[in-house]
Request: fold
Amino acid sequence: MASECRATEPLLRSLKEEKGGLSEGTRSRAEEILSQGPGALVPFSVLRELHAVLREKGSAVYLHELLEGSEIYLPVVELPERNPELVARLEKIKAKLANEEYKRITKNVTSQAGRQGTLADLGKDIRPLKKIIVTVFNFFVTVATAFACTYIGSQYVFAESAARILSSVIVASVVGLAELYVLVRTMEGELGEL
Reply:
């Protein structure tokens, strides 16, 4: 924080003229400032006391006129030296975070040049085909089972073979349509997830 300003000629002149009205400690500080000449650092406490002396005398010179052309002195802030262990740890953490970010970004990217058809890739390619084959097989087994159960069970109701076959075809068709409906709804849900 600023606590001093650089002295200009009008400020030094006024300080020299009013030196006698200043307190003892401020007077000795004023003599040091006067010996240094223009550009000397003047503490704000000296300026406040000089301003008070000028006001008591009823001087026509105001403080802002004395400070015209002077600049506030801001001391240079010395930054503490960074701890080498801390710097090394920070660099390590930055590298680790950058590596994690890179892995996250490239997680789903595969290289076409390095791909030579491993068994894991073959398994990934076959899984959807396997699922379709099992679904179709399940459909046919369900329809055939419904037909067989109806044919065998209808012997207690119908004596003729034609009526038993007709009732079995009707039941197998209804079961097949129900199975197709469920299959379409399931496929629609899976496609919606993609």
Q: What stands out?
A: The mean pLDDT is 82. DSSP finds seven helices and three strands in the chain.
